[in-house]
Amino acid sequence: MKKLSQKEALELAVNTLQKNGALKENALPLALGIIDAENQGIKSHGFHYLPIYCLHLKCEKVKGSASPKLNVISNVAFKVNADNGFAHRAISLGMEKLIPSAKENGISSLAITNSYNCGVLGYHTKNIAKEKLIAIGCTNAPASIAPLGGIKPVVGTNPISMAIYNKGEVKIIIDQSASVVAKSEISVRAKSGEKIPEGWAFGPDGKNTTDAGVALKGTMAPAGGYKGFGIGLFVEIMSACLTGSNLGVEASSFANDQGGPPGTGQFFIAVNPEKFSNTFEDKIAKIIQSIESQEKARVPGSKRINNYKKNINNEISIKDELYDKIISLNK
């Protein structure tokens, strides 16, 4: 197991992305997201994904020289064309307008189009929530979930996230996909040869499978059956239809080098609770207390928040095989 300081890990991520074709201004926002995922304990979106990002730079599925453009629609509505580059830079650019607008006007919105995999969606909502705002975000993905009664995928795992600031820090991060698990969790197991639990996914024939490789050729199981598909469809409408981005059925895979840029989208809403209620903070504190007072209950996002606090000043561990792969990408 290779151990790196926080600074060394960030430099490794930035340098690797640059070596494979990304401009520094595009590499750094993504690298910060990778390190944050590692610190939150979300390894599937940390260094594990770095070789895939590099593959997509090489095959031009993502544009390393992208120059995102901001469009001010109104004083509370903004849109960024990501130019088929990494989502992280486009989102960061949009937040420069979204956050002050929400603080001043009470609510503001941000659409991202011609985008790409945004990594951990909750990372972006957390960054908004740090500004004492309610943060809501959603992103679509290549189709992998079939409608109830069907076997052909129509929407992606399409996560939705909400982050809430309370009493000095971000206390709640809801970040969940429309599927039982994120597709990356199956990809990780497919690489290691590990079986997946029954109920995570279906094979191409629409039947349950515990074979991760077969699952990647089939469809993801929606969380809560038809309700999960409904959430996925909601996100598809907000992230693709509303932003003018590719639908899941039009987008190329996030996992391989087949096809051109996926061109997916994201949509964010920021709300200043002080503009709407003078009791919001106390109400949130009461909800949190009502959860934490129960012995085995956990506030959504508390695990990743606690992981981050514990790991932020510690070294980051990377499996030797993965580290060697990353080093080879720097040659």
From TrEMBL:
Signal peptide: none annotated. SUPFAM superfamilies: L-sulfolactate dehydrogenase-like. GO terms for molecular function: oxidoreductase activity. Keywords: Oxidoreductase. Pfam families: Ldh_2. The keyword DNA damage does not apply. Belongs to the LDH2/MDH2 oxidoreductase family. This is Sulfolactate dehydrogenase. It comes from marine metagenome. The lineage of its organism: unclassified sequences, metagenomes, ecological metagenomes.
